[in-house]
């Protein structure tokens, strides 16, 4: 496996970063997770635009143009001879001194890792996920916008820990007002009648690329899709609940905090949207 590291391809065991990198010391950097389906990179432009926006927000200069980054990703996939892959693109602040000030870090580190997929096991797509809500809150939009996909993932990690303490593999975070924000690394949707709701960005959700694709797909299919805040109660009484993300795609949730959702099986609309999503992935590749 070859890793892109600052202009070179190095073998996985040689792909190393200094302990003085502020990405390591402080979580100072940004990243993207991107999918490759049958040789086609899904929504690459959207991912790169989000990366540049995240970087701009934290005043990190990405030392490549969008075209250059595209080329780097394409090369990484090629060198690793992958058809279906998960790409991790990381831009860290780079090496500096022990102080917080990024001014001591003149050169960001740019890393691209391309791997075979590791998804949730197949039976979870067939049977649906059981999840819980956890005490960890989403960081407040006025502190560091949840729209910034930064290397600071501590609250998301706490969500994962709290989920596994509860004996489940995923969980939902609320914001400080008690509205449902998102999962540890996925967005959440609820279906009620013909209405589909997902929390708006200001509630404290990353504006997921998969989420946005699902909003478009659902609108095209004639659903009434809205970005609207909702509470745990709304989740408990929803007809269907599902999560979306680059790694997870679309996955049904069948139990939340012990409450069975719908009839306890992946919902009809969720399956329809998953099917439409898979179709879009193929169609985008043919363009
Ligand atoms: N929310 C968080 C916190 C994430 O890290 C991710 C993963 O990227 C998502 C949501 C889902 O976003 P996307 O569909 O762009 O992968």
Automatic annotation (TrEMBL):
Its cofactor is pyridoxal 5'-phosphate. It is an enzyme of class 2 (transferase). InterPro entries: Aminotrans_IV, Aminotrans_IV_CS, Aminotransferase-like, B_amino_transI, BCAT-like_C, BCAT-like_N, Class-IV_PLP-Dep_Aminotrnsfr. It catalyses: L-isoleucine + 2-oxoglutarate = (S)-3-methyl-2-oxopentanoate + L-glutamate; L-leucine + 2-oxoglutarate = 4-methyl-2-oxopentanoate + L-glutamate; L-valine + 2-oxoglutarate = 3-methyl-2-oxobutanoate + L-glutamate. The keyword Transferase applies. Pathway: Amino-acid biosynthesis; L-valine biosynthesis; L-valine from pyruvate: step 4/4; Amino-acid biosynthesis; L-isoleucine biosynthesis; L-isoleucine from 2-oxobutanoate: step 4/4; Amino-acid biosynthesis; L-leucine biosynthesis; L-leucine from 3-methyl-2-oxobutanoate: step 4/4. Keywords: Amino-acid biosynthesis, Aminotransferase, Branched-chain amino acid biosynthesis, Pyridoxal phosphate, Transferase. Its EC number is 2.6.1.42. The keyword Transferase applies. Acts on leucine, isoleucine and valine. Belongs to the class-IV pyridoxal-phosphate-dependent aminotransferase family. PANTHER family: AMINO-ACID AMINOTRANSFERASE, AMINODEOXYCHORISMATE LYASE. This is Branched-chain-amino-acid aminotransferase.
């Amino acid at each position: 496996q070859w890793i892109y590291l600052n202009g070179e391809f190095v073998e996985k065991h040689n792909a190393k970063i200094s302990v003085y990198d502020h990405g390591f010391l402080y979580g100072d950097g940004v990243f993207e997770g991107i999918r490759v389906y049958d040789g086609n990179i899904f929504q690459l432009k959207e991912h790169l635009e989000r990366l540049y926006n995240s970087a701009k927000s934290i005043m990190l200069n990405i030392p490549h143009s969008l075209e250059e980054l595209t080329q780097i990703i394409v090369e990484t996939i090629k060198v690793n001879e992958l058809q279906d892959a998960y790409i991790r693109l990381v831009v860290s602040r780079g090496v500096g001194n022990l102080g917080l000030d990024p001014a001591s870090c003149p050169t960001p580190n740019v890393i691209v890792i391309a791997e075979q997929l590791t998804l949730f096991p197949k039976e979870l797509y067939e049977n649906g996920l059981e999840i819980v809500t956890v005490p960890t809150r989403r960081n407040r939009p006025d502190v560091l916008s949840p729209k910034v996909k930064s290397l600071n993932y501590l609250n998301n990690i706490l969500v994962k820990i709290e989920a596994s303490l509860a004996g489940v593999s995923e969980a939902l975070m609320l914001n400080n007002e008690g509205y449902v924000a998102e999962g540890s690394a996925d967005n959440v949707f609820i279906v009620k009648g013909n209405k589909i709701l997902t929390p708006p960005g200001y509630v404290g959700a990353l504006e997921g690329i998969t989420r946005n694709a699902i909003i478009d797909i659902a609108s095209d299919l004639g659903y009434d899709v809205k970005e609207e805040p909702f509470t745990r109660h709304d989740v408990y009484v929803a007809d269907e609940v599902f999560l979306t993300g680059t790694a997870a795609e679309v996955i049904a949730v069948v139990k939340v905090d012990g409450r069975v959702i719908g009839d306890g099986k992946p919902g009809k609309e969720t399956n329809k949207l998953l099917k439409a999503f898979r179709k879009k992935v193929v169609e985008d590749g043919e363009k």
